Amino acid sequence: MAYMNAPAAPIPLDGEGESRLSFVRQPRSSVNAVSEILAGLASQPKSLSPKFFYDSLGASLFDRITVLPEYYLTRSERDIFKRYESHIAAALGTGRILIEPGSGSSEKVELLLNALRPGAYVPLEITESHVLEASRNLVKRYPWLTVHAICADYTGGMDLPASLPPGQRLLFFPGSTIGNFEPADASRFLREMHRVCGDGGSLLIGVDLRKDEAVLNAAYNDSEGITARFNRNILTHVNRLADADFDIEQFQHMAFFNPIESRIEMHLESLKDQCVRVGAREVQLEAGERIHTENSYKYTVEGFQDVARLAGFTPRETWYDEAGWFSVQLLDA
Ligand code: AVI
Prior knowledge:
Blueprint: E1 2-3, E2 21-25, H1 33-42, E3 46-47, H2 56-65, H3 72-83, H4 85-92, E4 97-101, H5 107-116, E5 120-125, H6 128-141, E6 147-151, E7 169-173, H7 183-197, E8 202-208, H8 213-219, H9 226-242, E9 251-258, E10 263-270, E11 274-278, E12 281-285, E13 290-297, H10 301-310, E14 314-320, E15 326-332
Parallel strand pairs: 1-2, 2-6, 3-13, 4-5, 4-7, 5-6, 7-8
Antiparallel strand pairs: 8-15, 9-10, 10-13, 11-12, 14-15
């Protein structure tokens, strides 16, 4: 295990494959979670950033969402990777430096690793334990693979270590996470990915598509109520982060497709007039008032390509699942 920057504490490894694993921890952004929460709750309408969904319960509820019958996104994307693995590999060749912002447990990249045979894999993930565990597993399972793990919040920009190996880069951004960015932020992030791609680089990105509203509404209003738990859990997380006293029983999950903005909106609706303490402040909510927690934009292929073109990309190929609900797009930098 080689450290490119000195981490705060040594990270124990069990040895196997460690010479092919390096780790960098980038300084955390100074934006303070409590001020962000207070600003969102002071705005009109009230809002909370979707990043606060993901405490450990939120992450495991999201894992459960991905296997729900109504939530087609993960299944459709996996089908595309499986079905078009050889086409994707033929378009990209082997030996690329494969960079994945928000890599989580690196499950999706595994579907393509053997076919792409990257020169190195560079996962960027905000949760250090996730990126280390995933990277350790990968170097054990793929004896030919070199991993340069980075613990960083990629939304603040991707300053990659100069020590990364040279080579054509491939940015991998699956899951339609781009749909959770507001349009201006999506453009900014695409420009950042374009910069990181460099000369001869490419982007392979999963983008959920606009479709029948009933399909979309069902995907975010599942019959088991897991998405409702995921949405309401943001308040439990905020209670811990900001010393607040939200009673989650007093809020109801709402998710609906907004055709004008072409997005699923998630909100939490207050069931009564209530006063919630957030640290030293008080937040008043009227019965029926909503806290906006997430947008999930649904693009057309052409619409997304227009945004990507403005960021400097040239669309090369698009693969779809059988129903034509989800796309995996290959764009050259
Ligand atoms: C992570 N992201 C792509 C999910 C989505 O579909 O927008 C988050 C999610 N929200 C509710 N269900 C899933």
